[in-house]
Design goal:
Helix content is about 45%, strand content about 25%. The strands form 3 sheets. The chain has a 4-stranded antiparallel beta sheet. It has a 4-stranded antiparallel beta sheet with strand order 4-9-6-7. Helix 2 crosses helix 3. The termini are far apart. The relative contact order is 0.16. The N terminus is likely disordered.
């Protein structure tokens, strides 16, 4: 059984365990998401295409669940891409099984509700940070909260996530090293 972060569990019979190489697309913008994925190992990035430029929305790590949620739940085409950044091992749950669990398992339903609310808070805080904070402050905040990301994720993806260019990120990192 896979344990969710809220102490619920999903029967292994419902899960497919799969391995994926780095740079594997798991969900493609324009397609309907049909699976919920749980990361056993590895790192995943969610991004969208803005006139040919990749804009990173979020990173996912071990213990996280990931899908294009609106597409997964309501069937419109996904407006994001989801890809592996590292070799990943994922536990994959089909939509029909997930929906059945939501209806029949109170622990899973509570886990999903709690996870969805937490992700809403995370996205709201990130949006406010992008609107209110200077790039240096966003960098400092990310470095303080997730220093491990800087060892696992290519700098151009971190720059995109922070809403800056790779050159600006390099300048900020150099400025920080001079100030420290």
């Amino acid at each position: 059984m896979i344990k969710t972060s809220m102490n619920g569990s999903i029967d292994n019979a419902l899960l497919a365990i799969k391995e994926f190489a780095p740079k594997t697309t798991l969900v493609t913008e324009g397609d309907v998401a049909t699976e919920m994925m749980f990361i056993n190992s590895g790192c995943i990035r969610a991004w969208y295409n803005a006139d040919g430029q990749e804009i990173t929305l979020q990173f996912f790590f071990e213990g996280d669940s990931v899908t294009s949620l609106e597409s997964f739940l309501n069937n419109p085409p996904s407006n994001i891409n989801i890809e592996t950044l590292e070799h990943c091992q994922l536990s994959i749950l089909k939509k029909a099984d997930f929906l059945h669990l939501l209806q029949t398992d109170a622990v899973i339903k509570n886990w999903f509700y709690t996870t969805a609310i937490q992700k809403l808070f995370t996205h709201t805080n990130r949006l406010l940070s992008l609107l209110k904070n200077k790039p240096f402050d966003r960098y400092q905040q990310l470095l303080a909260s997730r220093p491990d990301m800087f060892q696992r994720i290519p700098q151009h993806y971190i720059a995109s996530y922070l809403g800056i260019t790779p050159v600006s990120l390099s300048r900020i990192r150099n400025r920080r090293n001079v100030v420290s």
